[in-house]
């Protein structure tokens, strides 16, 4: 992802968070993650599932996990677990939870009273936000009533569940009722169940704290009279009317924010007075996928009977998060009770702020604010790209250099070739003289030096031509790099300056290397060759003069003899 893409994504998220904060002040769009959770385990398979859920919490949200172990032999035979099964659950916890984020609290607890006292001490000292409990742990039993003629049964919750629900007021409880959980999709699909519209903000915030990006939140508001039996007809009618008004206001105030946030979280709101609608929605939503959140601060809440129905339905396997009261809940109710005029003013304020925000954002786009570290990074990337292309074209340059040396001769090459021709002519003359005198001798040190000088001069000229050929690809590479850099207009000025700096550095390096490696050695070699040629010319002239004198003497002697 490029720098501009990251900036765009960041600004989009900031705008979404701003809309959340202004339009829905009671719901924090980016709530704090669950920092610390307590897991209760025994020897059942649901305990191992609880460990897996805790592992996922730690993996996705960085939650620190503490474990409390409960094992007793004083249980009925139908619910009693073996010691081996309990030890398996404990070893399973050690296997799946990281040592630095996992701690076993205290010794093994053997009875309910001891468990209550231990939990009192642990929850008092630790700042826990969640308690994970397998359903086998809360002592759900069904008893037959002798007074009833039918075979009806009454579900009775155990002491542990009543303690967690009634005495622990602020900590939510996550109930694991089945070992058939798809932990990979656990935090991507969340369903909310509320008994009235005033709880929506609190439950939405709770759902967001357990949701991953691109997740889904389904919100169900129950206004079924069967679950509000304590209300008279008039009270229930007033209750339905108030809920309808609250929901309309909630939807009107937050339609834009949830539309904007749909790129990150899908939010669906459903209200009905028929429980079958909710059950159908849960079925389509997925029985074994996601997490179900229900607002139930005590066992006397209106949704308690519906909660019991969920526990008795064996086809429903998702974990149930029991959300409770918090100190912020009072403030949330006050914030929710805003008049229609206040909502309109808020919407108008939002429009003005959005226009100002867009203007500021447009101005920011025109500015180029990049720190020195980014500048150096881009500079290094461009330089490496140039050097890489230079290396890729090195072989082609060498081949082209050989062809150019043979085809295109510069003025210096012509002069050097003339020098080579003279040297070869002198060597041929010397060979003729040696043959004439019938003397077979090896090459002198001067001849060897001439041959070496000739090869070195040729190599240096070849390097010079290569250098000229190399300059063209370099210029082409720089042009291509500059074209690529100029694609992003906001970075154009910076990249041009970086290219100029790189060009100057490369030019200085090339000039320095050429001066050191080519020009001065070449000049010295040329001077040596010229001196050697001059010496050879002088020797040759002296020899020709001697030969002419000898011929003249022979001619004069013959004439005298005649």
Characterization of the model:
The chain has 562 residues and is an alpha/beta fold. It has 3 domains: 32-178, Rossmann fold (3-Layer(aba) Sandwich); 180-336, HUPs (Rossmann fold); 394-561. 61% of the residues lie in helices and 11% in strands. The chain is built from 16 helices and 12 strands. It has helices at 3-23, 45-61, 83-96, 112-125, 159-167, 200-209, 233-261, 275-285, 304-312, 327-336, 340-366, 372-392, 394-407, 411-436, 445-485, 492-561; strands spanning 36-41, 64-69, 102-104, 130-134, 141-144, 153-156, 172-176, 189-194, 215-222, 265-272, 291-295, 320-323. Strands 3-2-1-4-7-12-11-8-9-10 form a 10-stranded mixed sheet, with helices on both faces. The chain has a two-stranded antiparallel ribbon with strand order 5-6. Strand 8, helix 6 and strand 9 (215-222) form a beta-alpha-beta unit. Helix 1 packs antiparallel against helix 7 (233-261), helix 1 runs antiparallel to helix 11 (340-366) and helix 15 runs antiparallel to helix 16. Residues 140-156, 327-340, 363-371 and 439-443 have low confidence and may be disordered.
Q: What's the shape?
A: elongated
What class do helices, strands and sheet pairing give? alpha/beta
Helical proportion, percent range: 55-70%
Distance N terminus to C terminus? 108 Å
Strand content: 5-15%
On the 0 to 100 scale, the average pLDDT is: 66
Largest sheet: 10 strands, mixed
Q: Provide the gyration radius in Å.
A: 46 Å
**How many domain regions?**
3
Strand order of the largest sheet: 3-2-1-4-7-12-11-8-9-10
Please report the number of helical segments: 16
Overall strand count: 12
Detail the poorly predicted runs. Answer: 140-156, 327-340, 363-371, 439-443
């Amino acid at each position: 992802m490029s720098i501009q893409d990251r900036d765009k994504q960041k600004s989009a998220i900031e705008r979404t968070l701003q809309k959340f904060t202004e339009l829905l002040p009671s719901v924090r769009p980016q709530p704090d993650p669950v920092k610390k959770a307590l897991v209760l385990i025994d020897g059942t398979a649901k305990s191992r599932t609880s460990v897996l859920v805790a592992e996922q919490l730690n993996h996705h949200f960085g939650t620190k996990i503490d474990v409390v172990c409960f094992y007793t032999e004083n249980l009925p035979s139908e619910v009693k677990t073996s010691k081996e099964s309990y030890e398996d659950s404990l070893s399973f916890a050690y296997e799946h939870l990281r040592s630095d984020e996992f701690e076993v609290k205290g010794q093994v607890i053997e009875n309910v009273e001891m468990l209550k006292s231990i939990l009192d001490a642990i929850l008092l000292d630790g700042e826990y936000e969640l308690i994970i409990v397998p359903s086998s742990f809360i002592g759900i039993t069904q008893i037959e009533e002798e007074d009833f003629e039918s075979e009806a049964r009454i579900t009775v919750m155990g002491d542990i569940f009543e303690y967690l629900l009634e005495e622990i007021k602020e900590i939510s409880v996550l109930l694991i009722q089945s070992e058939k959980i798809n932990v990979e999709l656990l935090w991507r699909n969340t369903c909310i169940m509320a008994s009235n519209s005033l709880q929506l903000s609190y439950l939405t915030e709770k759902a967001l704290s357990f949701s991953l990006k691109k997740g889904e939140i389904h919100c169900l508001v129950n206004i079924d009279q069967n679950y509000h039996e304590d209300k008279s007809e008039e009270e229930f009618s007033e209750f339905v009317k108030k809920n309808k008004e609250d929901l309309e206001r909630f939807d009107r105030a937050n339609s834009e924010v949830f539309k904007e946030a749909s790129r990150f979280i899908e939010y669906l709101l459903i209200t009905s007075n028929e429980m079958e609608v909710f059950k159908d929605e849960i079925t389509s939503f997925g029985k074994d996928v996601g997490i179900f959140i229900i607002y139930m601060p005590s066992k006397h809440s209106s949704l308690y009977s519906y909660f019991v129905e969920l526990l008795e339905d064996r086809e429903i396997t998702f974990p149930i998060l029991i959300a409770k009261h918090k100190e912020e809940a009072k403030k949330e109710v006050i914030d929710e009770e805003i008049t229609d005029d206040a909502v309109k003013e808020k919407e108008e304020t939002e429009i003005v702020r959005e226009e100002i925000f867009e203007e500021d954002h447009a101005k920011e786009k025109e500015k180029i604010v990049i720190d020195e570290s980014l500048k150096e990074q881009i500079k290094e990337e461009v330089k490496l790209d140039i050097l890489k292309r230079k290396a890729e074209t090195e072989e082609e340059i060498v081949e082209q250099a050989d062809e150019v040396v043979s085809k295109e001769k510069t003025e210096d090459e012509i002069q050097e070739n003339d020098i080579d021709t003279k040297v070869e002519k002198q060597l041929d003359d010397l060979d003729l003289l040696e043959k004439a005198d019938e003397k077979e001798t090896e090459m002198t040190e001067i001849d060897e030096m001439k041959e070496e000088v000739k090869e070195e001069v040729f190599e240096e000229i070849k390097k010079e031509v290569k250098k000229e050929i190399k300059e063209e690809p370099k210029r082409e590479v720089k042009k291509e790099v500059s074209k690529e850099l100029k694609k992003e207009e906001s970075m154009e000025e910076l990249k041009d300056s970086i290219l100029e700096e790189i060009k100057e550095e490369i030019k200085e390096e090339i000039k320095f290397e050429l001066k050191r490696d080519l020009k001065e050695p070449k000049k010295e070699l040329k001077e040596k060759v010229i001196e050697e040629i001059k010496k050879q010319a002088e020797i040759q002239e002296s020899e020709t003069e001697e030969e002419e004198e000898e011929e003249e003497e022979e001619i004069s002697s013959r004439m005298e003899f005649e």
